[in-house]
């Protein structure tokens, strides 16, 4: 098939083509020509006002509900939601039923994507219960792109330490969402003025920050031992969904020391605060919880200065039975695949278009040790086409679940097509 993209602004930081308006001709999945005013015959011509093109977008934190919870999201509906959001590749958490902890489960997910690539992450511990290790070496060779207990923060420091030691010679990466769950039992939202005002059990900042401190200390210990000679310069430890100003500061200091660490932020954490929960709308119930404006500003500052490497959706579909309940009984989580770019672009504070795109294209692939595509003649096409200025109302939800606080909101920036 021959595809001709007309007058697209190329967004690829650090390349000679960045910011240039070019035609791109793709034949049988290969970028054949990049130029101006190309007069080639094509089966499909893509032309759109204010058209931009970048590397295919990559979401490195998606809750796969299939197998086990297909009523919330099947792999088929997940793929449709990812395409609607402009993603050509997504990384899947292991919290399915059964858990992704065998070669067979890794292969099942790898082979399931028809139009986009699914990258399975494997569990650190059996059933993500934090007790006994999975066969990490076997899972690594089977194609698991990272190791994490996903929704379940690793509580046992010995488990985390040994995992770092196991993964160092493999050149693997451990992903942990920092939370000391002894401090968040029965918590519903951020611990602060609003939780006190409305009588909700709070989840304090220090539950996250203590975990970040602990994990960084363990990482530092590993790097000082004979285990601490990683195969690559890439991160060995990755923090998922950080949410506080102190977490940003701690990770910034760790990077300045040269520790192999990276982190991401869930896009919805960049938009809302604890005050948005005053209406008891369960679509705002997430973990980590929405915190304060000070924290939001610190997260944006961390994105601008490079402390925060990636923006993720933390796409977590929940059906009506899990969300249409009293606030304290509802499950955590919102969907975000379809809106990640538009939300980040709409609420953007100080981040250039090039840097924003880099945090959903290059950086996630680098962290996960995956090949980074290129926009150049002779390369395989892995592209997302989008309009950074188009305004639209989020209402036609593709996901099986509808738990989003952005429904009905006007967003700026929209994906147009994915070519992979």
Structural class by sheet pairing and helices: alpha/beta
Percent helix range: 25-40%
Say what the CATH topology is: TIM Barrel
Number of domains: 1
Principal-axis shape:
globular
Q: What assembly state would you assign to the polypeptide chains in this entry? A: single chain
Secondary-structure element series: EEEEEEHEHEHHEEHEHEHEHEHHHHEE
Q: How many strands? A: 16
Radius of gyration: 21 Å
The CATH class, by name, is Alpha Beta
Account of the 3D structure:
The structure is a single chain. With 420 residues, the protein is of the alpha/beta class. It has a single domain, classed as TIM Barrel, CATH 3.20.20. The chain is built from twelve helices and 16 strands. The protein has helices spanning 75-85, 103-110, 136-142, 157-170, 193-198, 205-223, 245-256, 293-305, 320-323, 340-346, 353-358, 362-367; strands at residues 2-11, 21-27, 30-35, 44-46, 52-55, 57-62, 87-92, 117-120, 174-176, 189-190, 202-203, 237-239, 261-266, 310-312, 383-393, 410-419. Strands 1, 2, 3, 4, 5, 15 and 16 form a seven-stranded mixed sheet that branches. Strand 13, helix 8 (293-305) and strand 14 form a beta-alpha-beta unit. Helix 4 (157-170) packs across helix 6 (205-223) and helix 7 packs parallel to helix 8. The protein is globular. 50% of the residues are buried.
């Amino acid at each position: 098939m021959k595809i001709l993209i007309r007058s697209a602004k190329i967004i690829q930081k650090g390349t000679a083509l960045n910011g240039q308006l070019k035609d791109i001709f793709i034949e049988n999945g290969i970028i054949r020509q990049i130029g101006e005013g190309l007069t080639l015959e094509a089966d499909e011509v893509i032309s759109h006002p204010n058209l931009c093109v970048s590397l295919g977008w990559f979401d490195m934190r998606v809750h796969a509900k299939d197998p086990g919870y297909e009523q919330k999201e099947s792999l088929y509906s997940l793929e449709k939601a990812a395409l609607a959001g402009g993603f050509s590749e997504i990384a899947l958490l292991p919290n399915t039923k059964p858990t992704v902890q065998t070669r067979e489960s890794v292969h099942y997910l790898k082979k399931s994507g028809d139009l986009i690539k699914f990258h399975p992450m494997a569990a650190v511990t059996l059933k993500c219960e934090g007790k006994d290790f999975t066969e990490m070496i076997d899972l690594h060779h089977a194609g698991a792109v990272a190791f994490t207990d996903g929704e379940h923060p690793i509580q046992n420091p010995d488990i985390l330490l040994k995992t770092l030691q196991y993964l160092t010679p493999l050149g693997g990466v451990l992903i942990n969402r920092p939370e000391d769950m002894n401090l968040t039992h029965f918590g519903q939202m951020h611990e602060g003025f609003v939780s006190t005002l409305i009588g909700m059990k709070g989840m304090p900042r220090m539950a996250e920050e203590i975990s970040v401190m602990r994990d960084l200390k363990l990482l530092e210990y590993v790097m000082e031992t004979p285990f601490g000679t990683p195969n690559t310069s890439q991160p060995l430890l990755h923090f998922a969904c950080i949410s506080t100003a102190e977490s940003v500061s701690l990770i910034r200091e760790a990077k300045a020391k040269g520790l192999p660490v990276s982190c991401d932020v869930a896009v919805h954490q960049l938009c809302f605060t604890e005050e948005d929960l005053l209406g008891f709308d369960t679509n705002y119930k997430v973990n980590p919880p929405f915190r304060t404006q000070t924290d939001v500003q610190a997260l944006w500052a961390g994105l601008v200065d490079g402390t925060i490497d990636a923006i993720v959706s933390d796409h977590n579909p929940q059906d009506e039975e899990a969300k249409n309940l009293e606030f304290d009984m509802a499950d955590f989580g919102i969907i975000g695949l379809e809106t990640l770019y538009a939300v980040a672009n709409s609420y953007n504070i100080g981040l250039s278009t090039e840097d924003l795109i880099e945090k959903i294209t290059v950086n996630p692939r680098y962290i996960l040790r995956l090949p980074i595509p290129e926009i150049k003649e002779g390369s395989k096409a892995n592209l997302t086409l989008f309009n950074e200025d188009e305004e639209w109302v989020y209402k036609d939800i593709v996901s099986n679940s509808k738990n989003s606080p952005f429904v009905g909101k006007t967003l700026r920036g929209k994906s147009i097509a994915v070519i992979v």
